[in-house]
Amino acid sequence: REDCQCHKRLLRELVSSLHHDTAVRVVVFRSLVQGVFCAGADLKERAEMNHSDSDLFVHGLRSLMTEIALLPMPTVAAVDGFALGGGLELALACDLRTAANSAQMGLIETTRGLLPGAGGSQRLPRAVGFALAKELIFTGRRVDGQRAVDMGLVNRATEQNSDGDAAYREALSLAREILPQAPIAVRMAKEAMNRGMEVDITSGMAIERMCYARVIPTRDRQEGMAAFIEKRPPRYTGE
């Protein structure tokens, strides 16, 4: 239990530091345990908790996932193995997801007398639509990487390699496509989309306008225009 709490604290500290790091352009979440992205909470540990401890535990996980979702730069989850329960909730808190075809993903809480409690009941419908999300949560079904990409749960799926890190390599490839773009523009685009998803379209347009206004005075915008006119690749600095 202490080891689990330590890992959660370290992740929370890392995420907190990323909120204020303007040099970071993309964050990739991966696991160094072969065949497992994140298998969710330790059910033996959960079984020993009283009602109050259980509520505090899940609240802590939920707030951590929210902090990850609120990171200003794009985030990519590289799912090379099992992502079950809280593991899939972590992946759902990221902007983009890559997966090995052999990966297994699912919000399986209903098979254990629970429901997704770290954001899954809210983020899965937003990712795949209400009808499909309800089917997946009601049944506790697991899906592989190819099925996940077909339903829009992940962005890219790929065959696993001998090193067991195919999804991570695919995530790096995706990150490399984002890196050349203007960092402030990318961050503002993320904010506009994430905030706009939660409001009516008129309010969303106002959010877009506000985010657009924050990009206009940047040096990167001037560099983008100059590079286009001069027919050369832009050199963005994040200023």
Fold blueprint:
Blueprint: H1 2-18, E1 27-29, E2 36-38, H2 43-47, H3 51-69, E3 75-79, E4 82-84, H4 86-93, E5 96-100, E6 104-106, H5 120-128, H6 130-139, E7 143-144, H7 145-150, E8 156-158, H8 166-178, H9 183-196, H10 201-215, H11 219-229
Parallel strand pairs: 1-3, 2-4, 3-5, 4-6, 5-8
Antiparallel strand pairs: 6-7
Helix pairs in contact: 1-3, 3-4, 4-5, 5-6, 9-10
Shape from CA axes?
Answer: globular
The chain-level mean pLDDT equals: 93
* N-C termini distance: 44 Å
How does the major sheet shape up?
4 strands, parallel
Going across the biggest sheet, name each strand in turn.
1-3-5-8
Proportion in helices: 40-55%
| Tally of DSSP helical segments | 11
Number of strands: 8
**Sequence of secondary-structure elements:** HEEHHEEHEEHHEHEHHHH
Low-confidence stretches: none
Characterize the structure shown.
The radius of gyration is 19 Å and the shape is globular. The protein is α/β, with parallel strands linked by helices and 239 residues long. A four-stranded parallel beta sheet has the order 1-3-5-8, sandwiched between helices. Strands 2-4-6-7 form a four-stranded mixed beta sheet. It has helices at 2-18, 43-47, 51-69, 86-93, 120-128, 130-139, 145-150, 166-178, 183-196, 201-215, 219-229, and strands at 27-29, 36-38, 75-79, 82-84, 96-100, 104-106, 143-144, 156-158.
